[in-house]
Amino acid sequence: MFLREIEGISKDAILIHVNGTTLRFTIRDFAIISGLKCSDNEEDFVFNTEEPNKIILQYFGVEKVITKSQLVEKFDNKVWGDNDDDAVKFAILLYIHSFILSEEPTSTVIDRKDFDLVESGRYIDYPWGKKAFDLLILHLHTKIKHDGKYFRLYDFPLALQVWFYECCSNFDEEIAVKVYHHIPRTVLNFW
C-alpha cells in the first residue's frame, strides 16, 4: 500500500496520500521521533585525510573503499581481539550504518569521515539525523524518479515506521496494532 501512495518527494519532505489526506513527513518529524541531531552543519566536521585512520589501517589495510558488508564481516569475526575500545568503535559504526542510516548491506560504501568521527569520538556531536533524513529523501527520490511508482526501501527506517503508525493508526489490525498508549523514546536517543 505504501508503495502506491507516495504523492511526491522534495528535498524537504515526503508527501503521502492516504484515504483522501496528504501526509507530510519532514526533517522536523524525523528529529522529534528519532531524537537525533538534525540541525548542525555536517561540514563543520573536518578531518585531515592525509593522516591514516587507525581503524581503517589496522583492520582494513590500505583499501580505499570499505563497504558495509566488509564492516559486518570484520564485526562478525571480532577482528579486534581483546581490544575493547576498538570493539566499541566497530559496534558504533555498525549501529550507525545498519540502524540509523538503514543502508543496503552489500553495496553501501562507508565514508572515511564516518571512521574519523568514531575514531575521534566526535560522532556524538555529529548530525546523524540530518544525514539519515537526507539519505532517505535521496533514496526515495532516485528510486521513484527512475523506477516509476514502485521501489524498494531497505530496512524501512524506524522513524518513518513510527510516524506512519502515528498518522495512520486507524488501519485494520493487519497493518498495525496499538499495544500501549505511551509514546516511546527510541534507542536512537542513547547519545
TrEMBL record:
Ranges of residues in domain DUF1985: 3-137
InterPro entries cross-referenced by the UniProt entry: DUF1985 (IPR015410)
PANTHER family named among the record's database cross-references: DUF1985 DOMAIN-CONTAINING PROTEIN (PTHR48474:SF1)
Protein name, as recorded: DUF1985 domain-containing protein
Source organism: Solanum stoloniferum
